[in-house]
């Protein structure tokens, strides 16, 4: 049993990881300012409503918690918003991480799992993407995460901090046994938006069908949030056992186009999803697919949700839990 602090633990991936670690017997505390996350995602008595820039409050949480390690999710994630308000992303994501790292040093906590993103690659040179490809983010969101990765690399070099950064591809799905799922406001992610189209009959816009992909729509690597939660657990175990720092892709290694996801959702729900073909969305690479062999080989990561249908099914179960059956 380890004492773990999860920042951003009221959010989508953070709350799944929190529940997963609790189910394995770890003592987990959650730190979240609730600017995006929801208190109902966090088990009773574990939530500290604190912003990462509030160092006095951070000190209080760390003084009480005696943490063995931190898992750091707290960040803004909307790519489009990051283009419109870059300062907000560098302040919250990069600045917030630095404030957390300062606090960790003050309290002698030297193990961190960091929530990174495929957005650090920008438009990849090769697909599937391996970790040592050129890192060239095409939006402030990706850059804000890369700046934190760079900070971590230097802290590993110059101090006793050890970290694992997980670069997620498209997190999706939900874990019904915890009653939590994907809830963003505003929602920008494909699968919940397809469900909205199915429920309301109002069409979802497919952003571009002239990409150099088999059906012209963007290809992404959809990975179940519970498999991501397990990747965090494995990274944490390695760090707690004295393992080295490292950076890992987390994806399934299989790409699906926007149209394939729409078709999968129609099959799972037995309902039609109306859609219209629209312009490309700014900053969308044509294809993002992970090579996650490093994660599999190093930690023995074996994703359980290995079909798109099973992932979409679990997301639909949460949608029904939230909005009622259709
Ligand atoms: N899409 C549509 N219509 C919509 C919404 C999405 O066609 O209404 C398309 C997008 O163009 C994209 C695909 O569906 O091709 C997936 O889009 P999402 O917004 O669900 O996810 P992204 O691939 O844009 O973003 C995800 C994460 C980001 C991360 C990025 C790169 O949400 O945080 O992957 O790793 F930066």
From TrEMBL:
**Which Pfam family is one of this chain's hits?**
Epimerase
Q: Which GO terms describe its biological process?
A: galactose metabolic process
* Keywords per UniProt: Carbohydrate metabolism, Isomerase, NAD
Return the broad EC class: isomerase
Name its pathway.
Carbohydrate metabolism; galactose metabolism
SUPFAM superfamilies from the entry? NAD(P)-binding Rossmann-fold domains
What EC number(s) is this enzyme filed under? 5.1.3.2
The residue ranges of the NAD-dependent epimerase/dehydratase domain are 4-251
Q: Which cofactor does it need?
A: NAD(+)
Which terms does the record give in the GO molecular function aspect?
Answer: UDP-glucose 4-epimerase activity
Q: What does it catalyze?
A: UDP-alpha-D-glucose = UDP-alpha-D-galactose
In which family does this protein belong, per the annotation?
A: Belongs to the NAD(P)-dependent epimerase/dehydratase family.
PANTHER family, sorted: UDP-ARABINOSE 4-EPIMERASE 1 (PTHR43725:SF53), UDP-GLUCOSE 4-EPIMERASE (PTHR43725)
According to the record's subunit comment, the protein's assembly and interactions are: Homodimer.
Q: What is the protein name for this chain? A: UDP-glucose 4-epimerase
- Source organism per entry reads Paludibaculum fermentans
Gene it is expressed from: galE
């Amino acid at each position: 049993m380890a004492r773990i602090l999860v920042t951003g633990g009221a959010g989508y991936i953070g709350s799944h990881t929190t529940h997963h670690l609790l189910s394995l017997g770890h003592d987990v505390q959650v730190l979240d300012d609730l600017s995006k996350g929801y208190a109902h995602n966090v088990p009773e008595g574990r939530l500290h409503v604190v912003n990462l820039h509030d160092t006095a409050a951070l000190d209080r949480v760390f003084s009480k918690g005696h943490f063995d390690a931190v898992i750091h999710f707290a960040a803004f994630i909307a790519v489009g918003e990051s283009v419109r308000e870059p300062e907000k992303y560098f302040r919250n994501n990069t600045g917030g991480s630095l404030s957390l790292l300062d606090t960790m040093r003050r309290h002698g906590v030297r193990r961190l799992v960091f929530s990174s993103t495929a957005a650090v690659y920008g438009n990849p040179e090769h697909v599937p993407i391996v970790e040592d490809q050129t890192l060239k983010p095409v939006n402030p969101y990706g850059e804000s995460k890369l700046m934190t990765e760079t900070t971590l690399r230097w802290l590993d070099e110059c101090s006793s901090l050890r970290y694992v950064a997980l670069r997620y591809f498209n997190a999706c799905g939900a874990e019904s046994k915890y009653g939590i799922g994907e809830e963003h406001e505003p929602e920008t992610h494909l699968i919940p938006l397809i469900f909205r189209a199915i429920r309301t009959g109002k069409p979802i816009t497919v952003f571009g069908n002239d990409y150099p992909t088999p059906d012209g729509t963007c290809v992404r690597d959809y990975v179940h949030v519970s498999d991501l939660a397990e990747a965090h657990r494995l990274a944490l175990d390695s760090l707690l056992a004295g393992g080295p720092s490292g950076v890992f892709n987390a994806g399934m290694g299989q790409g699906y186009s926007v149209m394939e996801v729409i078709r999968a959702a129609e099959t799972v729900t037995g309902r039609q999803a109306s859609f219209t073909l629209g312009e490309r969305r700014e900053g969308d690479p044509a294809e993002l697919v992970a090579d996650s062999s490093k994660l599999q080989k190093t930690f023995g990561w074996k994703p359980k949700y290995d079909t798109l249908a099973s992932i979409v099914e679990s997301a639909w179960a949460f949608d029904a839990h939230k909005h009622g059956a259709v």
